[in-house]
Amino acid sequence: MKNSNIARIVLIVLFLLFVGLYLVGNSTYYDYDVTSKTRLTEEQIKKFEEDIKNGKSVDVEEYLKEGQKNYDNVISKATLDISKTISSSFDKALSYFFNKLNDAMQER
């Protein structure tokens, strides 16, 4: 394979990764998650204030509990492991690529 073909493939892969990360970054899932956590916190504060007004005994730990379920399963754990492997491999590949690029620049 020629060096120009390798460079072209690397640039295309980097561009596709950039586009994918850009789309994920601009999705509204993160904003939705933050908003729902804020809403939950506001509801817990109101409940806490109501309990104080009514003279109930108050335990702070009771209001700090999150009501979210744990959805971990075999598939999510496997995909997380795959994601970590891909991330590690991509990191090594980029390091190798930039080291070779640095070596090529140093030769001139």
Describe this structure in words.
This protein has helices at 3-25, 29-53, 60-64, 74-107. It is mostly helical. The longest helix is centred in the C-terminal third of the chain and has 34 residues, at 74-107. The two termini are 22 Å apart.
Write out key terms for the chains shown.
108 residues; 81% helix; elongated
Map the helices and strands.
Layout: H1 3-25, H2 29-53, H3 60-64, H4 74-107
Brief synopsis:
The chain is an all-alpha fold and 108 residues long. The chain is 81% helix and 0% strand.
The helix-strand sequence is HHHH
The percent range for strand residues is under 5%
**Proportion of residues in helical segments:** over 70%
Radius of gyration: 25 Å
